[in-house]
Amino acid sequence: MKKGILAIVVVLLALMGQGDLCGGAKMKLYSTAFRDGERIPLKYVMPGAGGENLSPPLKWENVPEGTRSFALSCHDPHPIARNWVHWLVINIPASVHALAEGASGGGMPPGAIELVNSFGFAGYGGPQPPPGTGDHPYVFTVYALKVKELNLSGHLSIAQFREALAPYLLEEATFTGYFGR
């Protein structure tokens, strides 16, 4: 009898460790170039701050069921930056779960649309915080959406972007890199 109870406990503990079997694992976003909470490497910052302005490699996993597309944002919520938008992307196909380093500006998946950032151009604009303002947080967010396409254009604030996504949002995941000079 004790062996039977022990076997049940072992099975239950194993199942609890499998997020997909117990209510679903949370979607996760990360980069292979830097970890959540770490400094963003120089090649991903704007030339004015000494970098190459390459968009970082990004990956996401544990996508919720019913996802038909993804959107992506990167913004700087530092009080000096006041939610400066560095990158907005819509209509990333549901089959895509990663963006390669330097994808912005020519290597985006078919159908994905890069919107205008706060610098005034479409695509990724890396960190370029004013000197002496300390480390700024750059919050990357991927949004799983229940629609295949969104029709957005123009220069949107991060609040306007999130508001436009809200009716279609299934789940989102974030991670943050830091940069200062």
Helix content, binned percent:
10-25%
User: What is the beta-strand fraction?
Assistant: 25-35%
Radius of gyration: 19 Å
CATH topology: Phosphatidylethanolamine-binding Protein
* CATH homology group: PEBP-like
| Principal-axes shape call | globular
Task: Work out the count of structural domains.
Answer: 1
Structural class: alpha+beta
Provide a count of the helices: 2
Distance from first to last alpha carbon: 66 Å
Count the beta strands. Answer: 8
- How many strands, what sense, and barrel or not for the largest sheet? 5 strands, antiparallel
- Helix-strand string: HEEEEEEEHE
Q: Biggest sheet, strands in spatial order?
A: 6-4-3-7-8
Q: Round the mean pLDDT to the nearest integer and report it.
A: 90
What is the CATH first-level class name? Alpha Beta
CATH architecture: Alpha-Beta Complex
Low-confidence stretches: 4-22
Description:
The chain has one domain: PEBP-like (Phosphatidylethanolamine-binding Protein). The protein contains two helices and eight strands. It has helices spanning 2-16, 158-165, and strands spanning 28-30, 58-61, 69-76, 84-93, 98-99, 113-114, 136-145, 169-179. The strands form two sheets. It has a five-stranded antiparallel beta sheet with strand order 6-4-3-7-8, covered by helices on one side. It has a three-stranded antiparallel beta sheet with strand order 1-2-5, with no helix packed on it. A hairpin with a 7-residue loop joins strand 3 and strand 4.
